[in-house]
UniProtKB/TrEMBL annotation, chain A:
Residues 2-246 form the ABC transporter domain. InterPro entries: AAA+_ATPase, ABC_transporter-like_ATP-bd, ABC_transporter-like_CS, FeS-cluster_ATPase_SufC, P-loop_NTPase. It comes from Acidocella aminolytica 101 = DSM 11237. Keywords: ATP-binding, Nucleotide-binding. Belongs to the ABC transporter superfamily. Ycf16 family. The keyword Transmembrane does not apply. PANTHER family: ABC TRANSPORTER I FAMILY MEMBER 6, CHLOROPLASTIC. SMART domains: AAA. Transmembrane segments: none annotated. GO terms for molecular function: ATP binding; ATP hydrolysis activity. Pfam families: ABC_tran. The keyword Transmembrane does not apply. This is ABC transporter FeS assembly ATPase SufC.
TrEMBL record, chain B:
Residues 210-452 form the SUF system FeS cluster assembly SufBD core domain. This is Cysteine desulfurase activator complex subunit SufB. InterPro entries: Fe-S_cluster_assembly_SufBD, SUF_FeS_clus_asmbl_SufB, SUF_FeS_clus_asmbl_SufBD_core, SUF_FeS_clus_asmbl_SufBD_sf, SufBD_N. Belongs to the iron-sulfur cluster assembly SufBD family. It comes from Acidocella aminolytica 101 = DSM 11237. Residues 143-202 form the SUF system FeS cluster assembly SufBD N-terminal domain.
Amino acid sequence: MLEIKNLHARIGDAEILKGVTLTIPDGEIHAIMGPNGAGKSTLSYVLSGREGYEVTKGEVIFNGENILEMEPEDRAAAGLFLAFQYPVELPGVGNANFLRTSLNAIRRKRGEEELDAVAFLKLARAAVRQLAMKEDFLKRNVNVGFSGGEKKRNEMLQMAILKPHLAILDETDSGLDIDALKIVAEGVNALRDEKFSALVITHYQRLLDHIVPDVVHVLAGGKIVRSGPASLALELEASGYAGLEVA
Amino acid sequence: MSMTTEATIQELAAQKYKYGFTTDIEMEEFPKGLSTDIVRLISAKKGEPEWLLAWRLKAYEAWLKMEEPHWARVHHPPIDYQALYYYAAPAKAAPKSLDEVDPELLKTYEKLGIPLNERAALAGVAVDAVFDSVSVATTFRETLAKAGVIFCSISEAVKEHPELVRKYLGSVVPAGDNYFAALNSAVFSDGSFVFIPKGVKCPMELSTYFRINARNTGQFERTLIVAEEGASVSYLEGCTAPMRDENQLHAAVVELVAFDDAKIKYSTVQNWYPGDADGKGGIYNFVTKRGACRGRNSKISWTQVETGSAITWKYPSCILQGEGSVGEFYSVAVTNSHQQADTGTKMIHVGRNTTSTIISKGISAGKSNNTYRGLVKIMPGASGARNFTQCDSLLIGDQCGAHTVPYIENRNSSAKVEHEATTSKIAEDQLFYCRSRGLSEEDSVGLIVNGFCKDVLKELPMEFAVEAQKLLAVSLEGSVG
């Protein structure tokens, strides 16, 4: 369970989050929608521990622990996963090597046994097949020369292998065609169970046709201004975000 | 970067150097300083023939007239050549077989991960172990002898194969070539000799492991590798030294000769003590390495991973004389803390249709300075010559420097020379991406750096590639906060 309580955060002098409060119980998928500049990406970076964001007030409790004090890698080990809006290229680093290093780093931190190359490859190949990707994906360098769609699929591959308790998808749908959108949705839906939860950040409603959320929140002006069922997304699509910030 | 990052850099810039121990063993040392008497003493100690003594003395005369070079982008206080010991060796007589090697020495190499016991040794790798001034053991000599390969210390080669040594010694790097080569020629004490006869593919990897132990002692080793027509060999050298507060001088010369269709692959994993976090101590690594591709379609390939030394001054080069001969230089140079490296290569195209490839990866962290300096020279007769050069620099932190100094001299209009260079920083988003996937900051840097160096690391013999990867990670430990 993720509990965000009265979270304030700034970049330099600019206060971006002005008191976000939000609870995501296990097993639920919540969507955050909102206009550009509402603080959606800031929220995802603050949750995952990126440098340069200063939390001035509030707390974030994940499965009973205050994660704001934790390093990004420790948050990953605690089961948090951020699917990047712009996945980063790592020249010369093989995808399979990266995935295995990540998985074993997390397993080590959790006191679990590391996977050897054979066991890992079996796991990775199964995940690649499930996401309808070509096997040479594992041999390529991390995100280097990937199309936009391939980068997003690669995020889903990492998510499938790292099996987080909570996934944050930061506008993962941006720039995707409908087929790639479906792959992302399948990636999330495949993990859905009573323990897994997700925070889906999106500007558009269309991703939510494929990942049906339990709750939709509207973030505007650094605060949650409205929350409601999945149908709220459709309503927003029709009426737009105008007028929400003052609510 | 944030304040905590800066603090962590300061705190952790001290590298962990795990080879810094010393070996307590009875040593024989000659008096300090350099003179014709010392040169004569070294030669006499080794029972050398008259011609070699004459060669040494000529080199010494030449050295006296030369000046220490200062064109490289490195800075150091003046070196007092009279304050150094030019010969230090374990006091016990040279062992005849591995069973006679001093157990203390065996232990030393064991600790360094180089077991000299053939049963425990890395499969397929023969080792010559050089301790301060002398070779203390060479493994697998019988196996190699069966194949016709000569692999022994150069002192032994002078005794056993004087005609070969006389023919090739100084034929690539003449005694008066440069200041440090002249010094080496005058006082070299040991090193390795490799001879691969016509048509023989050396059945094992050959390796020399250099260890400086004694205090205030310079190490001046000399390596000579000759591959006759159609022969091939892969050779690797490794180097470590104890952690000492004073700087120590290492001035080596390596000469390679390749005849028609011969191939020599020379790999270096250089991990001399780099000095402490404040720049105190460490090895001055002033080395001349040159290969001559004398035969048609011969090939010489240099691969180096340079992580150690306080100062590195080193330009492994190829003289491409034979038609269609090939020169390659693959380099990773890592500098951290106060280390300085000025390294690169020279590719001299003499023959027709000669080709050379230069891939250089420089990584600077801490307050270090890392310079690539390279010359590509196409002589008038080198029609159809081709060169491709790629120099990439990676900066970690904002207190280090990366410099690229390429020289190109082309005197043949049919030649093609390409040069590409990039400089990048480890981006904050790359680090965050790795960390958000569970990797610690240091593992993230290790992963990114190894990716950056992949094109070079894949050229290393397999047995050493993994070691080199670990070494890179250790060398950069604490370079990012």
